[in-house]
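Review form for a predicted model. The reviewer records the input and the model, then writes brief findings.
Reviewer: anonymous (R2)
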Amino acid sequence: MTGASRFLSALAVATAAAACASAPRSGDVAPNTGCYALYASDMYGAVTAATGLPALPPYVALDATTVGVHGRRLIVPVTWQAVGPSPDWASWRVDRSGLVLTFVGSSGSLVVALQATTDGYRGHSVTPLQRGAPPVLVTLVNASCVGLLPGAS
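Model under review:
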């Protein structure tokens, strides 16, 4: 079994496990586990200033695996897997009626609050940013998992 097929098998198992997980509490949104293209408007370099990361990954998948206090693991492209300071540098959790993404880099963290849309999620950073930079706007759009395969970015 190749690395790519093992990854896809693991992703399928994780997605199925997330779908079978207990129902969310009243007021929580049931996250659409799966793959998303991630778009971030960061004209002022706020992501790098807040985290030390060069940018946010272009694709993510919501995974059911828990990663400590931040929630659940975000699967990122292979080229991004070693970017953060630890294996749980990218995570997500359900919060009220949306999702919260957390990205932890060598300089700090960036927390993004997202609300459900018809084709994914949309929101902005809630981390106070340096030099009065405006919040980073983030959109997750339903996508295939092709951006998460080895060699894709």
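Findings: Residues 3-148 form a domain with the Lipocalin fold (CATH 2.40.128).
Further findings: Strands lie at 35-41, 59-66, 72-75, 90-95, 98-104, 109-117, 120-125, 137-142.
Recommendation: see findings above.
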